[in-house]
User: Which sequence fits this backbone?
């Protein structure tokens, strides 16, 4: 795919100066390396900040130059266009991670993986995060989405979240202010950056906690196509139904466009059989939505975020 970058060599050197030359800033970075779908064209610029001041410097520079910024975590809920992403991708991931535990409270940075968090909680004999151990996202992505599984979700454990608001001011969001709902939070509708959060857990029995995590991992392995790249459940659960069942009732299991296929194992997942393009996935999503609406009368809404440059 030819590059359509809007970051020319002058802006590149300015960006390097603004952020500080770093191996964590790259140009023409293939997003297929940063999404669990293993799909997506190149980001003009890609930056993995290590601390808050790097985030602020990058965002201030981009705001001044009117360079669009796209925020991602571990890329496990994303479909990125084959034409990539114009502007800067700010990836709040591994370099921006870390946690501390005091009593029943865990504080963690936004880039911390949920599996790491759940493991640390378990070792500290704290229960409440078992549900999150198999979700392949970061804390920031999970709070934004109110990620959940097996009848629990982030809402159950999050007490306070520190963010940078649209003007880059530090703000702390507490309790009900999060406006958590099914796969939704206050942050879903705003361009804010989650920096860190505090979670409240309960004392538990270490064996029971690890047994529970093992049981949930086995259930995932049996029911989800973890052996192939995907972005998890493509659609939100429509009230009163299960998206996977609706899709499977339409005989769509195994249906493919190019290498994008409705998983044989879990019809709510689209898997990348190898060379799937974002275009294939998008066409497949539309086909599924149309078929389910025609045959079952239910309108499916996507849970995954479709991002990047979709202009032809
Ligand atoms: C195999 C598989 C299984 C999955 N199972 C589940 C499941 O059981 N339950 C579930 O809910 N999801 C599941 N998912 C989907 C996904 O893992 C979650 O939605 C996860 O919370 C996304 O986190 P992320 O860090 O990957 O975010 P990304 O996918 O990178 O981004 C998702 C959204 O969060 C925003 N975001 C990311 N970081 C921040 C931040 N620091 N501040 C503000 N906004 C931010 C992004 O802008 C974007 O809008 C699964 C995915 C896969 C591939």
Assistant:
């Amino acid at each position: 795919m030819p590059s359509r970058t809007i970051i020319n060599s002058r802006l590149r050197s300015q960006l390097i100066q603004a952020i500080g030359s770093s191996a964590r800033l790259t140009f023409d970075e293939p997003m297929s390396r940063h999404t669990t779908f293993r799909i997506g064209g190149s980001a003009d610029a890609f930056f993995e900040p290590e601390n808050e001041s790097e985030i602020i410097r990058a965002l201030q520079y981009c705001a001044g130059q009117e360079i669009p910024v796209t925020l991602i975590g571990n890329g496990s809920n994303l479909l990125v266009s084959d034409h990539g992403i114009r502007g800067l991708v700010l990836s709040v991931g591994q370099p921006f991670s870390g946690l501390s535990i005091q009593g029943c409270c865990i504080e963690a940075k936004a880039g911390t993986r949920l599996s790491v968090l759940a493991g640390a909680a378990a070792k500290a004999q704290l229960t409440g995060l078992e549900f999150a151990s198999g979700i392949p996202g970061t804390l920031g992505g999970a709070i934004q989405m109110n990620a959940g599984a097996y009848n629990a979700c982030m809402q159950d454990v999050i007490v306070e979240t520190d963010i940078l608001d649209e003007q880059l001011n530090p703000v702390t969001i507490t309790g009900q202010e999060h406006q958590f709902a099914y796969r939704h939070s206050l942050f879903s509708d705003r361009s804010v950056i989650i920096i860190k959060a505090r979670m409240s857990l309960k004392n538990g029995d270490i064996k029971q906690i690890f047994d529970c995590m093992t049981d949930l991992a086995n259930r995932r392995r049996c029911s989800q196509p973890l052996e192939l790249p995907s972005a998890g459940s493509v659609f939100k659960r429509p009230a009163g139904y299960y998206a996977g069942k609706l899709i499977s009732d339409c005989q769509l299991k195994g249906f493919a466009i190019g290498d994008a296929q409705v998983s044989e194992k879990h019809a709510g997942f689209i898997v990348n059989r190898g060379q799937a393009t974002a275009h294939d996935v998008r066409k497949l999503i539309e086909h599924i939505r149309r078929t389910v609406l025609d045959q079952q009368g239910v309108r499916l809404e996507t849970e995954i975020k479709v991002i990047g440059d979709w202009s032809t």
Observations:
- Residues 36, 71-78, 92, 110, 135-138, 140-142, 144-145, 147-149, 187, 193-194, 224, 226, 230-232, 305 surround flavin-adenine dinucleotide (CB under 6 Å).
- The two ends are 12 Å apart (CA to CA).
